[in-house]
Write a structure and sequence with these properties.
single chain; alpha/beta; six-stranded mixed β-sheet; 13 helices; globular; disordered N terminus
Length: 324
């Protein structure tokens, strides 16, 4: 069971209070994100009877600022999350680096860092089974739209293993090409062709950062209507969603109260977050994986076996909110 309480803090004034944290000998995991600073949060949670501070710092799309924050905090905190960006994409056994993001971490030399890929491959793989157990009678046609299946390969495979019909919108939502991908093998094949090129494109072209995360322009509405379940990154789902999403189920994470209100106003029936709700919001996989790295106290990122064991010990599981 995760216990938490809100800490008094003002990230916008740059007060990180690192010394105070270390004097209390409390673990501290920090996610530095390319996302909006309006989504910043700092709370204290308890994992396996150990208190740990988790903190999210947004840089409004400024990669240089993010790199400098990592530099300032390197060696002073227990784990970093790289937020608002992926260092690379894992599709089955193949890893594709996103080279434009690598300058963000160039100053990290001491503190272990993760971008959430570990939890996407472990915790999120369990999501489909969780839905089957909790909401199977609410799912009608068993159709899932992934805004980006490559970014959520673990979750995608979980739904495919349970014979859901999946459409992957990687070309539609990342590259604005109106081409749905209708199989995992198709997604792997296309990724092998385009990722060596896409991996060298500026990340801001592929994914909304900073204030762009607050802009909603409906697109690809045919596929939103087709699906029972809308799954994947919260910002990609929001960015193109239509005004009417009645009776749909959204499976995502990194949701704020404002996100929840937007989904509720559009008629979403259930919101399922793959990470726990803490003080009114869910944090990204990078933040929660960094928290697990800090808790494990190994001064390195955790492998799949270690993550699965820790997830089981703590009791991490998705969270369901009924909105309408």
């Amino acid at each position: 069971m995760i216990l938490y309480h809100l800490l008094t803090h003002n990230n916008h004034q740059g007060k990180l209070e690192i010394q105070d944290t270390k004097e209390d000998d409390m673990k501290h995991a920090v996610s530095v994100s390319l996302g909006s600073s309006t989504r910043d949060k700092k709370i204290e949670i308890k994992l396996l009877d150990e208190s740990i501070i988790i903190e999210r710092i947004g840089t409004d799309g400024d990669m240089l600022k993010a790199a400098n924050i990592f530099k300032e905090l390197d060696g002073k905190v227990d784990a970093f999350g790289v937020g608002g960006a992926d260092l690379g994409i894992q599709i089955d056994e193949k890893y594709y680096p996103l080279y434009s993001v690598l300058p963000m971490i160039k100053h990290i030399h001491k503190t272990p860092f993760v971008d959430g890929l570990g939890l996407k491959s472990t915790l999120e793989h369990r999501t489909a089974q969780f839905l089957e157990h909790k909401l199977s009678d609410k799912i009608q046609s068993r159709r899932v739209l992934f805004t980006a299946g490559a970014d959520r390969w673990g979750m995608s495979m979980g739904f495919i293993d349970l014979n859901y019909e999946c459409v992957f919108g990687d070309l539609m939502f990342a590259l604005d090409l109106p081409i749905p991908i209708k199989s995992a093998s198709g997604l792997k094949r296309i990724a092998s062709l385009i990722m060596p090129i896409v991996g060298r494109m500026p990340f801001s072209i592929l994914y909304p950062t900073g204030e762009k995360q607050n802009i909603i322009k409906p697109k690809h509405t045919k596929w939103y209507r087709w699906a029972d379940i809308l799954a994947g990154d919260c910002h990609l789902i929001k960015r193109s969603m239509p005004d009417d999403l009645s009776q749909k189920i959204i499976v995502t994470n990194t949701t704020t109260k404002d996100d929840v209100n937007k989904f509720q106003n559009r008629g979403i029936r259930y919101l399922v977050t793959t990470t726990p709700i803490l003080d009114g919001r869910s944090f990204g996989t990078n933040m929660m994986e960094a928290a697990l790295v800090a808790t494990a106290n190994k001064d390195r990122k955790l492998n799949t076996k270690e993550l699965n064991a820790l997830i089981g010990q703590i009791g991490f599981e998705p969270n369901i909110i009924k909105l309408n």
